[in-house]
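Sequence, please.
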C-alpha cells in the first residue's frame, strides 16, 4: 500500500498543511495545500504506468515523496506573490472532489 504524506510548514508566519496522495484509479499524484482548511494551492502529476501497479509500488512511492518534498520546498522558499504562481490552485475544487471520491468514497450525488 502506498502511504500518503502530510506535513505542516510555516509560510509567512502561518502554518499551512501539505497533503500528498496517490490516486490509483487515474494513476495521479495529487498534492493539496491547505490554509485553515481552505485549499490555497495544488499540484497534480499523472504517472504513466506500464504493467501492474503493485509491482512498481516502490517507484510510485518515490515519486510521491519527491513531489511532496518539492511542494514543501517551494512553500518554504516562496514569497507571498510567488506561491500562487508556483503552485496554482486552478482546479482545486475538482482535485478535492476527486480526492474525496478516491480516498473516502465521498462524492456529489
Amino acid at each position: 500500500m502506498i502511504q500518503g504524506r502530510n506535513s505542516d510548514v510555516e509560510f509567512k508566519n502561518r502554518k499551512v498543511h501539505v497533503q500528498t496522495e496517490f490516486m490509483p484509479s487515474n494513476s495521479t499524484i495529487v498534492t493539496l495545500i491547505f490554509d485553515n482548511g481552505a485549499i490555497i494551492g495544488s499540484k497534480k502529476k499523472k504517472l504513466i504506468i506500464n504493467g501492474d501497479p503493485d509491482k512498481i509500488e516502490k517507484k510510485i512511492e518515490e515519486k510521491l515523496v519527491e513531489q511532496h518534498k518539492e511542494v514543501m520546498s517551494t512553500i518554504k522558499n516562496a514569497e507571498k506573490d510567488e506561491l500562487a504562481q508556483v503552485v496554482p490552485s486552478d482546479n482545486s475544487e475538482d482535485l478535492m472532489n476527486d480526492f474525496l471520491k478516491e480516498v473516502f468514497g465521498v462524492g456529489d450525488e
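The chain has one domain: 5-103.
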